[in-house]
Amino acid sequence: MPLRRLTANTRAAHMRVGIVLSRFNPEIGELLLKGALRALQDAGVREAQAVVVAVPGALESPLMLQRMAQAGDYDALVALGAVIRGETYHFEIVANESAAGVASVQLEFGIPIGNGILTTDTEEQARERAEVKGRDATLAAIEMANLLAVIDNE
């Protein structure tokens, strides 16, 4: 039997996409959002099909993602934010728990979530990576939504 390969794409003119943006480290957040919005535009998502919700920080992102997933109005979600290492253990808590929360929502609701929450040692590292990370997380969510649709239609 020949091997079948399911392929997806990042075309999303038919999709509604929700973005949860952490307001903590706002300059980095704006760069992340710039990359995400560029990715949506390149994928064919019209402005009216995208929603951006701002939350206080990365730890609040999973709750908003959960509520958006519960609504059933989105084909894909994206989490954006920046957690920058400081001098305390708080970095590890926020980085680990926000990532676990994003993954948990994704699995609970079966909706793809692009995790664009940066975890870096310095603000400079975050600034250098932000726009690309926002774009990549958005494209990953769109690609996964397309793949899930292919599997659902099998």
The CATH topology is: Rossmann fold
Distance between the termini: 17 Å
Strand count? 4
The CATH homologous superfamily name equals: Lumazine/riboflavin synthase
CATH architecture: 3-Layer(aba) Sandwich
Structural class assignment: alpha/beta
Biggest sheet overview: 4 strands, parallel
Query: Strand-residue fraction?
Result: 15-25%
Uncertain regions spanning at least 5 consecutive residues: none
Description:
- The chain is an alpha/beta fold.
- The protein has one domain: Lumazine/riboflavin synthase (Rossmann fold, 3-Layer(aba) Sandwich), CATH 3.40.50.
- It has 4 helices and 4 strands, in the order βαβαβαβα.
- Strands 2-1-3-4 form a 4-stranded parallel β-sheet, with helices on both faces.
- Helix 1 (26-43) runs parallel beside helix 4 and helix 2 packs parallel to helix 3 (90-109).
- The longest helix has 30 residues, at 123-152.
- It is globular.
Question: How are the elements arranged and paired?
Answer:
Blueprint: E1 17-22, H1 26-43, E2 50-55, H2 61-71, E3 76-84, H3 90-109, E4 113-120, H4 123-152
Parallel strand pairs: 1-2, 1-3, 3-4
Helix pairs in contact: 1-4, 2-3
